[in-house]
Amino acid sequence: MCGRYVVASEPVQLAERFAAVDRTDGAVRVDYNVTPTKTVPIVVERGGQRTIRPVRWGLIPTWAKQADSGPPLINARAETLTSKPSFAESAARRRCLMPATGWYEWRPDDSRRQPFLCTRSDGAELAMAAVFSAWLPPGERQPLVTCAVVTTEAFGELADVHPRMPLVLPASRWGEWLDQQRTEVTGLLEPDPAVYRALEIRPVSTEVNNMRNNHPGLLERVEPAPEPAEQAVLFGS
User: How confident is the model over 92-149, as pLDDT tens digits?
Assistant: First the structure.
């Protein structure tokens, strides 16, 4: 899954990276600890123009009656993306990229909550496949635009940390993914091994666990504390 990530580039830098026009109007900024429901930058393409837009992380389907009817839909599984009602419409017509310097992950069975950062060794921004939705709140004229990261089954070193991972697209697939005229995307949902071979996974500070912590130091390698030794048996059977 992807529950925290990093955007260490300003919107103007993202616009250059993705050959897009910055339309964020100051609504997003560098964030070293992005958490659900924050305003985040996405890349969309409409009318032949690619732009960077600010949206809320946590998709609200167009047919939802209210915004907070349950946990935010921050992830969309690739295996059910085109069939699950919450995401099917967006998968066909409202796809985007979520720029990320990397994402944080935790081993599900680690009681220490040791975070790991998955990122490119050269620091270049990744393009996480994503979908978005424009939900119109009752009585309002302005829609609330929200998004979700597409995730897939992890493999290799990534699988040693967590069984799921974001679907990171190579630059060669960006245009196809953003193409509004393309409604069938099954062929784009297979992860490209070359993209993941360019990643490194490093332990980082447990400061990441507190969503209020937000500074560049969160990206630095920090060797994890040793796992606690098994407690001695105090009483026999």
Answer: 999 999 999 999 999 999 888 999 999 998 889 999 999 999 999 888 889 999 999 9
Residue segments in the chain with a per-residue pLDDT below the cut of 50: 231-237
Pairing type for strands 39-46 and 144-153 reads: unpaired
CA atoms lying within 13 Å on the CB side of residue 217 = 5
Whether the CB-CB separation of 14 and 30 falls below 8 Å is answered with no
Distances (CA, A) of 46 to 18, 21, 144: 14, 12, 18
Residue found by looking up tokens 């009602």 in the block: 85
Domains of the chain: 4-235 (3.90.1680.10)
Q: Which residues are catalytic?
A: 2, 105
Provide the residue count of the chain.
Answer: 237
